[in-house]
Design a protein that fits this description.
There is one protein chain. The chain is mainly beta. It has a five-stranded mixed sheet with strand order 49-58-57-51-53, with no helix packed on it. Strand 2 and strand 3 form a beta hairpin. The chain is elongated.
Length: 728
Amino acid sequence: TPTFAKQTIQTGAGASDRTVTDMVMDPGNASSILVYVFGVAVAGDGGVWVSTAGDPWAGTATWTQTITRQGFGKFAVNRSGAPAATTFALTQDETVPCGSTATSAGTLKTSPDGVTWTAVAAANGFCGGQCFYDMVPAFHPDTASTIYLGGSSDGGVGTCTNRVFSKSTNGGASFAANDALLHADSHALTFAPSNHNVVYVGNDGGIFKSLDAGATWASVNTNGFNATQFVSLSVHPTDANFSIGGTQDNGTEFFQPNATWTRADFGDGGYSAIDQSSTDTANVTMYHTYFNQTNGLIGFARVLTAATATEGNWQLFGCPAPGATLNGITCTDAVLFYAPLALGPGNPNTLYFGTDHLYRSTDRGATMTMVSQPNFGCCDTQGRNFRVSAIGISQQNDNVRIVGLNNGKVFATTTGANPMVDVTGAWAAKFIGRAVIDPTNSNTAYVTLDGYGTVSHVWKTTNLAGGSATWLPASNGLPDVPVNAFAVDPLSPSSLYAGTDVGVFNSSDGGTTWAPFGTGLPRVAVFDLNLQNTSRKVRIGTHGRGAWEIAAAAVVIPPDFSVNIPSGSATITAGQSATFNISVTPNSSFIGTVGFACSGLPAASSCSFNPATVTPSGGAASTTLTITTTVRTTASAQPISGATLAALTSFGFLGVVFFGVPSRRRKVLRLAGTLMLSLIIVFAATSCGGGTKHIPVTTGTLPGSFSVTVTSTSGTTTHSSVIALTVQ
C-alpha cells in the first residue's frame, strides 16, 4: 500500500492551496520533481516550482520557484542520448506578440534542469488563446529533437500560428502541421511502450492513432468507445427514440425514430429543444444553439421538420452573423458561452432565450421580445452584466416564469410581469444550474446549484405564487457536487431526478431524501436529463461518456389530473369580457369530476365556467372561463335641499353642545355631531355659488393589473393556476 506525504511548496504570501495543473519527474533523478501551480491574484504564487534538495517522497523537499506565472502550464520530459541527458519542455498561456497585438496565444520553453529555461520562438501562438483548454507538449521518447505540440484549431495572426497539432524534428527551430484528419482542441498524447512510432492523441473528437510517429492519423472511435460530450439532450413528446442533443465541439446530434444517430448540424452544440406540441415525427419544430459571444454570435438555429434537420438547412436567428435573421436579440448583450434556451406551453410552444435578460417568442423564434428588466445586475470580475444560466417555465401557465443567474440570483414572475422580482433564497452565491417548475403545480419550483461547499445543491419552494418564494434545502442524500440537470415526473411529481457531476440520483418524496439511481452508469458528469413519458424512460446526456437511458422509477400514481391554460393573460377594456380555454387531462386512473372557482377578481367583475364541471376520464376535457367586467360610469350626486340642510345642521349642533347625558354617551354624540357638521360644510359648498355643483361618483371596474387565481378541485385534490388580467 503506497503512502503519500503532503508537499508544502510555498509559505507566506500566496501560500493557500492552489491548483496544480501538471507535474513531472526527472527520469534520471527521482528526487527532482517539477510542479506547475496555477496562480491567482497573489503576486508570485504561480508558475514552476522545483524540488532542489531533500526528499520529496518523504515530504522534506526544499522547493525553488524558477518561473513566475499566474496561469496554466504543462510539462514534457525526455531522457535520451549517450550519455543520457534530461530535457524538460514547458508550455504556458503567456502573452506574446502576434503581429501587431499581444495575446495569450501560448509559448514553449525548454530546460536541461528545470531551473534555467530557453524560449522556443517558433512555437509562439501554438494554442491560439485557448491555452487553458488546449495545451499538449511532448517529446518523442527516443530523441529530444522531435517535439510535438497540440493546440486548438488551425489559424494564425501575423507571426503566430496556432495548430491542432504540429511537429518539430530540429529541436524547435521550426514546426510543421501534422493534423490531417485530426479533430480540433488537443488534450493528451502518449506513445505505445512497445513501439514509439505508434502515437495516440486525445481531443474533442475522441482518440486518434498514428503508426508513423505522427505523420498520418486515423480515428479509433469505434463501437464501444463512447466519449461524446453532451451539453443537452431533448426528447420528443410521443416517440420513444426521437432526441436531439448539443455536444461540445461535435455539433448537434439526432437520435432518429429508427434508433440510429446522425449529425444534424455542425459546430459547438449547446442547448436544444423539441416542441412538445408535436403530434408526429415528421412535422417537428426543433431548436439548438451554437456557442454565444457578445458582439459576435448570439442566437439559435431552428428547423420545422425532421427531414430538414441536416447541415445547411437550419435557419439561424439572432444578432448579426453570416446568414442570421435578425429577430430582436441584441448583439451587445452579455451572454454565457452556452446560453440557456427553454420552452413554455402552447401550440406552438413559446420559446425563451437568456442573455443578461430574458427573451420570449410566440412565433417559433422569428421575433423575440424582452420580458424582463434590461439586466439583472452588474457586474462580474470582467465587467459584464450577470447572465441568465437557467430558465424554468410553467407548463400550466406561460406567465409563471423563473430564471437563475450565473451569480446565484433567482428572479421570478407569476403574472408575466416585467420587471421580474428577486426571489433569491438563502443559498450560497453559486452558479444556478437549473430552474424547474413542477409541471403539475405552478406554485412549486426547484433551483439547483453548481460548485462545491454548500449546505444544499437543491432548493425547493411551494409558494412561488406568493411573490416571496420561501425556499428550503432539499438535497439530503446528495453529495457535495454540482447538480447540472433536474426533472420532475409529470405523472408523479414527488418523484424527482437530479443529474450531478457523479451520476444520477432520485427522490421519491419530493426532495426530502435522495439516493443513487440505477446501475451500470460510469461515474460521470450528467449535463442534461429528461423523462420521455410515453416510454417512461429517463434519458441523459453525459459530458464525456455519451448518452444513456434507463427505465423511470416505478411509482404508484394516485388518481390525479393536470390543468393547462395555454394563453394565461388578456388585456381588455372595462365592460368587455375575457375568455380562457382550460384543458384538464387525467392520468390513467383518474375518473373524478373537476369543479372550478376563481379569486382575485377586480371589483365589479365576475367569472363563470362553461361547463361548470368536467369529467375527463378517458381523455382530456375542457371548459371555458369567462371573466366579465363592468363599464365604468361617472354620475353626479344631487344637491341637498335647504330644509334637509337645516335639519342636519340642527342635529350637528345638538350633538356638539349636548351636555346633559352621561360622559361616555356625550363623547359619542359630540363626535357624531362633529362629523355631521363636516359633511354639512361639504354639502353646503356644493350648493352655493354660481349654480348647483355635484360630487362625481364612479362605478364599474377600475383599471389595473390583476392576478386571478383559478382553482380546479376534485375531492381533496386541488390545482391552482394564475391568470394575468389587465383592465384598461
